[in-house]
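Example (one chain per record):
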Amino acid sequence: MKSLMTICCTGMLISFIGTLPLGTLNVLAAQMAVDEGISPALWFSLGALLVEMCYVRLSLVAMGWIRRRQKLIRALEGLTVITILLLALGSFRAAANRGHNMVISVVGVSPIPRLLTGILLSAINPLQIPFWFGWSTLLFQKGVLLPRNDHYNAYIMGIGLGTFTGQTMFIFGGHYFVKTLSMHQSLVNGLIGLVFVITALAQLLKLIRRPTCPGRPG
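Predicted structure:
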């Protein structure tokens, strides 16, 4: 029987590695750190990881139900593609207008809007569900994870720590990268828009080629 620490570390490792690829939430967190500061970006990341942890919990207790709802997951994946393309359009418009702040930046000074923004954007990224559904199924099959509340809690805690660690790297590292190019803000906006387009196309290809298999989060 695996210890709770082993389960926690396993969830943390999987989540950390899954967070490292450049994705929509990572880019948004890095840009937010530049435009509004480290604190709002951390609140944004906190909101995003809270939703991810909820998705994992739901996938653990309702794995059979999720497997029978592939059409719903595909519909949410389609919504995610549309949302990313809209973010790309906003970034390209900001680059063309040579505006200092990206159109996707959130207005206001309270950390609560950033928390809600992270929650909302993470909530419309359903690719987390099949990603964690696939990993959890594998861990069940290997006997690392058992259908017990203490195992679930340790697993989810590790996932939260892994996601937050990965996001923090983007917030501080991305902050330095984007700050260096702050005098070329149009270029930065254009590059971010390009990242969004590539991300959207990649998710669209996954949606077309993989109608039922679990995928990776964007």
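Caption: The longest helix spans residues 149-180.
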